[in-house]
Amino acid sequence: MTSIERPRRLFSFTDWSKANGTRSPPGDRLDAQIDLLVDAIFSTQQALAEIQRDDGKLKNSLVTAETLEPSLADQLAIAVERRTAAMVQVAEQAAARTRFAEQNLSLFARDAEAAAISASQFLSAVNTAQQLVAQSESRVANLATSIETDATDAENWGQYSKAQADNAIKAKDEALQWAEYLAGPVVNADDAPAYIAASPFPHGLYYQPVEGYGGVAGLWSAKWWAIYAAQLVGPWGYYYLGGWHDPPLPGETNPNTGIKVPNPIAPGSTYYDLDQNQLYVWNGSTWTTPLSLAPGFVQQLVYTAGAGQTVFSGPDDNSAVPNVGTSPSDVHINGVRQIPNDDFTVDAATNKLTLTDPVSAGSMVQWDILIPSDQLAPGAVLSFKIHTLTPDGSLRDFTLEYTDPSSGMPALANVSDAAQLTVVLDGITQEPGPDFTASGSNLHLVTAPRSDAHLWAVWHRPAGAL
Prior knowledge:
Layout lengths: L12 H8 L6 H23 L20 H34 L5 H74 L9 H7 L10 E5 L2 E4 L2 H18 E5 L25 E4 L4 E5 L4 E2 L8 E8 L4 E4 L16 E5 L2 E2 L6 E4 L4 E8 L4 E7 L10 E5 L11 E3 L1 E3 L6 E3 L8 E5 L2 E2 L6 E4 L2 E4 L9 E8 L4
Parallel strand pairs: 3-4
Antiparallel strand pairs: 1-2, 4-5, 5-6, 7-13, 8-12, 9-10, 9-13, 11-12, 14-22, 15-21, 16-17, 18-19, 18-22, 20-21
Helix pairs in contact: 2-4, 3-4
């Protein structure tokens, strides 16, 4: 007989949906559940084929004496045997009395009547035996009907299993439709209603009208959002080069993150200097800071005005005397900033502030003398990592070479002061003078490093130096 595979649940897709939101159900779990249902249907159909013909009837010779319950067959045989033996005994007795009555008919008329009665009883016993046999046949027919009913039930279960398998296949197809649906196109506002109506999931949660976001309306798919995210993150990942201890060079790989610097470096690219804790921007030829300097204070003077006063000079409320020189000025009256050459003028030669309009008594006049603009320019330094320096155990002089960012080609350094070099030997920073000297493209170490030593250097070239 065929072994029937029973359907059972392998995985809860409801729990998956609760835990994972919009993520697609795991395909391997769907396939495993469907394979189990297909095996159950196939084994059930094989078992059904062993007991049912193509016309829906039980197979020939399927119900035999061997297929009946042994105790039931024994009981039927014993009952028939007992009834038959009783009828034979009664018939023999009746026959004996009949022969006796025939021999003594003339003398015993009443015995003849009794014989007739006995004969009638014999016929009645025979009819009873026939009824018992008919009842036994009926019971056998009922048993056959019961077996046929069980076979029908088995067929129904097979059909039910097939229906469940079909439902599982439909669920898988629907999941695939959802996956394709979520990766669909962006639909404009005018076409959105018709698109929704024609979709297999017109009430889906992932396709709803979007109004007023970035000037775009309509339907946005998950695919659209993925592309949009890539557009946002992609350029940032291209221009931001990560954190570096030294200014990155074209084509160099960050040892900490594995990010490779583009060659050439695109203007606008940025990196974070881990030593200076500052962000730098590539302007097309060098790394510069995005910060701009604002004027600082040289002096801050505060005067308490008298009634109608317009001119302020000499010691202020704190006995500070103005010294204008070439410095620009900021003026505030009671906290309100004044406009130069409109609300006030400053005479640098006499260190005098003159207001256009007189102020009331007690007004606070704040006169800020600022750092001249020509003194705001910072000292710019360009840093270049020197190409690999390879000790051999005796070598003390090394050639300083770097990659020119404008051409991308190797170039010789032109060091004018050893302090412009940062030299590190086996992780220990060397001191200019006692440990090394440098001039032009030559580096001279006081002590030759070992052949297995790790030696590297960075040239901090002053702006404008070649």
